[in-house]
Specification:
469 residues; 2 domains; Na+/H+ antiporter like fold; mainly alpha; 17 helices; two-stranded antiparallel sheet
Length: 469
């Protein structure tokens, strides 16, 4: 009697494996815009530092502190305040759409796949907060800034990648993007829960009613920017006056957009609006916020104080050490306890390098720093200097680590882009398709025939040249 066939072994789930083609295309499109925005963000931050440390620093402060707006509506704000509360609402609106898309159509849709980025992001926020708390409490500093080093700035991180010219594989880029989306979600919750000092329930109720109207209009298929933009401004103004940070209005409206396609739709409304608004966010809103938030006085003494004052040292170590250890440790734990294997194309040092890159916490870290130490201008500026210093160190460390493996990354990217049959689909996504192998066989046969014909022509010419005169 023949022995029974062996039971099939279950294939282990891969961590940071190859993306599906639609997801890869979406990530590539989103990151192109974020990279350009990151470069503008970097330039704006440099411009702010130069302006604030030049002979025209008084003009910088005058412009930043210039007030305008309807005082009767409680909106007589400084330009710096408009940038932090108004322009960043656009940034968080896009973040809300990204989060909604991830939840309904992206990596976070599948609970098994969502475990990795969620655990990594949570650990990447908890460990920096713990590092700050330990450093600050040991040195007798304030614990108010515990949330400052918890945020990752995806645009700044991508700008660093663009500057150093590394060919990061799409799986690692998608991991970084998803980390940032989850990070933004929890940053929003931190701002809403921990940085709301008082509540105006009348204004809050009005904002909730406005959001309900916004949701009903979307569900009824009402279209037209002239309907939604004025309504969004009213919701934002009410949310600001309620005492809850006004950026919460942006993410709430972003989460309400539909991010799944119906029959006959090439793109969902959420994707369409994100495509329109993302350039405004990345190219205007965030760089302008950076211009009026990153302008802090930098001197030898100021930099030295960053490493001696417990609050600022806690921010630097939280970004540089806490982020890298937290995200790497969270990723390893998620893989270990879900019995998943790291993709054979990557190694754990690659994960650590990307984790170090996530230590660049600029936009949201600056915002939380302003909220945490509101009223103390000196400490606020020192915290901003610490955010800049920690982000710079994290960028340098990650750049070195990624450059070491760049030759490997370049080969992976070339394999992802290779399209020998010229059908518009990378060959790596067609390897299991029989029609693809038939096309490739035909291509190779035609190439071989062309080589034979060239060889015959070359041989004939050689005989003529060597023949009798």
């Amino acid at each position: 009697m023949p022995a029974p066939p062996p039971a099939p072994t279950a294939t282990k789930r891969k961590v940071l494996g190859r993306l599906s083609l639609p997801e890869r295309n979406f990530v590539a499109e989103a990151l192109r815009t974020e990279t350009l925005g990151g470069v503008l963000l970097l330039l704006a931050a440099i411009a702010a530092l130069i302006w604030a440390n030049s002979g025209w620093k008084d003009s910088y402060e005058s412009v930043r502190d210039f007030h305008f707006g309807p005082a009767s509506l409680g909106l007589d704000l400084s330009i710096g305040h408009w940038a932090a509360d108004g322009l960043l609402a656009v940034f968080f609106f896009v973040a809300g759409i990204e989060l909604k898309r991830e939840l309904v159509a992206g990596d976070l849709k599948d609970p098994r796949a969502a475990v990795l980025p969620v655990v990594a992001a949570l650990c990447g926020m908890a460990v920096p907060a713990l590092v700050y708390t330990l450093v600050s409490s040991t040195g007798g500093g304030s614990l108010a800034g515990w949330a400052v080093p918890t945020a990752t700035d995806i645009a700044f991180a991508l700008a660093v990648l663009a500057v150093i010219g590394t060919s990061l594989p799409s799986a690692l880029r998608a991991f970084l993007l998803t980390l940032a989306v989850v990070d933004d979600l929890f940053a929003i919750l931190i701002i809403a829960v921990f940085f709301t000092d008082h509540l105006d329930f009348a204004a809050l109720g009005g904002a909730v009613v406005g959001l309900a109207v916004f949701w009903l209009l979307l569900r009824r298929g009402v279209r037209g920017w002239y309907v939604y933009v004025p309504l969004a401004l009213v919701i934002w103004g009410l949310m600001y006056n309620s005492g809850i940070h006004a950026t919460i209005a942006g993410v709430a409206m972003g989460l309400m957009l539909r991010c799944t396609t119906h029959e006959g739709e090439a793109h969902s409304p959420g994707e369409h609006i994100e495509h329109l608004v993302r350039p405004l966010s990345a190219g205007f809103a965030v760089p302008l916020f950076a211009l009026f938030s990153a302008g802090v006085a930098v001197s030898g003494n100021a930099i030295g104080e960053v490493f001696t004052r417990p609050e600022t040292l806690g921010v630097v170590l939280g970004l540089v050490v806490g982020k890298a250890v937290g995200i790497f440790g969270g990723t390893w734990l998620a893989a270990r306890f879900t019995r998943a294997e790291l993709s054979e194309d990557l190694a754990w040092p690659d994960v650590f390098a990307v984790s170090s890159l996530a230590g660049i916490g600029f936009t949201v870290s600056l915002l939380i720093g302003e909220l945490a130490f509101e009223g103390d201008e000196v400490l606020t500026d020192e915290i901003k200097a610490a955010v800049l210093t920690g982000s710079l160190i994290a960028a340098v460390v990650a750049s070195v680590l990624l450059k070491i493996r760049n030759a490997k990354y370049r080969k992976l990217c070339e394999a992802e882009e290779l399209d020998e049959d010229l059908d518009g689909i990378p060959d790596i996504y067609e390897q299991d398709n029989p029609e693809y192998h038939l096309r490739m066989a035909d291509i190779y046969e035609r190439k071989a025939a062309e080589h034979r014909r060239l060889a015959e022509v070359t041989a004939g010419a050689s005989e003529e040249n060597n023949g009798p005169a």
